[in-house]
Design brief:
By secondary structure, the chain is of the alpha+beta class. Helix 4 packs across helix 5, helix 13 (357-366) packs across helix 15 and helix 15 (408-418) packs across helix 18.
Length: 635
Amino acid sequence: MLIFDQLKKNDPQLRVLSWVVLGAMSVLLVGLWYVQVVSHREFTENLRAQSFRTVRIPAIRGRILDRHGRPLAENRPSYNLCLFLEELRPQFKAEWARSRPAGWLPRARRLELESQARYRVASNLAYQVGCILGQPVRLDHEVFCRHYAQQLALPLPLVTGLDAAQIARFHEHPGGWRGVDLDIQPVRYYPHGSTAAHLLGYLVRDDSSAVDEDAFFNYRLPDYRGRVGIEGALDSELRGKAGVKSVLVNSLGYRQSEEIWTPAEPGRNVVLTLDLDVQQAGEAALRTLGSDTRGAVVVLDPHTGDVLALASAPAYDPNAFIPQISPQEFARLSDPTLRPQINRATQENYQPGSIFKIVTALACLEAGLDPNEVIYNPGYIHVGRRQINDLAPPGPYDFRRGFVKSSNTYFITNGLRIGIEPIIRLAQRLHLGERTGLPTGQEVPGNLPTLRRVRVGWTAGDTANICIGQGEVDVTPLQMAIMTAAIANGGKVLWPRLVSRIEPADPYRGEPVVEFPAGRVRDELGVQPRTLALLREAMLADVEDREGTGRAAAVPGLRVCGKTGTAQVTDARGRVVDHTTWFVSYAPYETPRYVVVVMVESGRSGGATCAPLAALIYRALLQMEGRDRSLAQRS
């Protein structure tokens, strides 16, 4: 009351002071109102941002399955021991109190010693864990410090990939482990090791966001993307959509709790046309020649274009890339001679040698070649000043014998008669010199001279080379399989089909299934039925005749049609330094079901090296058919 009594006395100084106090109080009240009402949302968001950390959660990757639903690439749980640093705070404080020097310390020195104390606690704990697990466990100092500074709210992986015995030892430890616990994460797994490795591809570490994904996260859990093969080509389908979880941290950055904000959506499954049994049969056939064999096997359905097997040797195990490939394994994959990472069925150019005589034969027969006309082979043929030797024995040759004995003289003579253009046109209908459209994209187009090329500066010697699959023509084993399929199916040049469908991981989610049609026709050979019939009979004779170069491919109970080839590999000076050996085939003769192509680098000859491998594959196919019939009868 004293203040109001003084005001009544009309004291000017006191009245001014009163107005100043009232004004100051008004300013404080307005500021408080602004903070609590107007800026409430902003301060709340700032507090939330300081308290929560967003973590990107990778989606479970979709599986890759064979045509019968058997997994070729899937996910399995990886049991990892992790340090949860927020639970070790009491030990950190105790160790710092025990080891702290007396007296005042500069801030930088104090922080350094505190970090060393924390590392001693974590390192000793890692050593104790290793003793229990029966394996040495070492915690790298740099890794620990970096994790503490940058990812404190996340568990620190200590041991990955525990086996069942180690998990049991961990759980049986008396008293448990404060600050150490199991963390289960899905990891990519290829159950059949190196089987179909070149087709499947492999993964590399990549924690980045997808194109349609929020790019900002405080933390990112380890994630992978496909590098090559199906894993790479269909990565967007297989990878799924990442989720988000939030981690509540305290003022020091230690984790308090966490919750899922957006669950991750698993990737879609990819079903291939590949048959696991056929693929393994093709790879097993190549392995019979030794671990350093360089070659390829292709098995197609001649009517649908389905790729049943696409094998390349030597191979690699894509499991080696998870979580990261070792320097030793990477050095092996970088071998300049073996080149295990190359898919020799699609990624390498090879001269076809005598298997290209199939194209020459079609062109000559269509141009009016009389199959009964006889040409004498003296064991060589002169083209200009050049002599081309003929490994077929000297003597008379009609079409059938010329094909069966693979006479260079016979095919060069007839090829020179019709000229190069009909041969090139027919090869163009087979789309040689072009990619086959395999979805993996790991494909070379090969090489075929254009009509413009053969009309300018072309010589008879160049034509002679093309007639027998040498010179300016290169192909891949897959291209030769498509060529052979066109002979077997009546003249349809097909697009190969490797992916059958893409389906959701959960069939009950109602997501659509993407189907890829079979039997897509790319072109037609456009030859007469009589021409195809003559060629088929000659291919049958190449295997069934006693003097056929492909007789080693004969299989009892199965009429195999084939053609051998041996192409010279020359160096820059034109000297022969190696050979590429071939055998292209289909079976059975009457109603073709399979196309089998075998290519081996540095082989003896197509008949001696590749034809026996084709026989092994055909025997395996017959056994599979017998097994399937037996199962069908039982059901």
